[in-house]
ABA4-like family protein
Amino acid sequence: MTDFLFDLSFLLAVPVWLLMILAPNWRPTARVAASPLTVVPILIVYTALAIPVLPELWTLVSGPSVPKLQDLVEVADGAGALWAQIIAWDLLIGQWMFLESRKWGIHPLVMSPLLVLTILLSPFAFPVFLLLRALGMARATKDKHPTVPQEAIQ
């Protein structure tokens, strides 16, 4: 059962990822990405995996340490619960990135590979996105307030 739930946690996220990556300009994609409810099914899987290891999980979160984390991930349900939590978190980050990219004019051909990287290695993708977002924000500010050439002032 643990293996099934482990796999299910990612399979539940796949439709949202596919919409954001392959159909970024389709109107329903933005509505789906704007909803935090997309992670609820994944959190249900998380709960099903976490309940059997609640004592170990509580020990870890109430006094975090590497040995306690190792103890939790040595148990299949513990590793599965942590995986489901990662899947849910990455999906929320991806949804926020998708929505912000639309707001700041980052092209879907740039965002699609970045969203794939977010699925695989979100701690690397997120700072790259923040840089792109900052550039988009700066461009938008410049477009709203163009600088006046010095020759025009004289």
Notes: DSSP finds eight helices and no strands in the chain.
